[in-house]
Amino acid sequence: MSTHSNALRKPGKTALAAYGFLAFPLAAAFIALQVLVPTHYAETTAMSLSTIGFVMLLARLWDTVTDPLIGFLSDKTPQHLGRRRI
Question: Transmembrane residues, as ranges (predicted)?
Fold first, then answer.
């Protein structure tokens, strides 16, 4: 088996689980914010929960457009302008 084929080997289930496990605390905190923040906004502003939910939906929809765009621009940025490292 050559060195080149070793570099292209897929990670095992243990490695994938380890990477996923690191994201778990962030996901848990995000879910808590998704539940608590709209209620807090509704209690401290004159907006209804449906209005707050709509605004949060618009923010998520905006992310679906801008996130791939930023990724594309990051991939195409020349190295001398500060392109991200591999």
Answer: 16-37
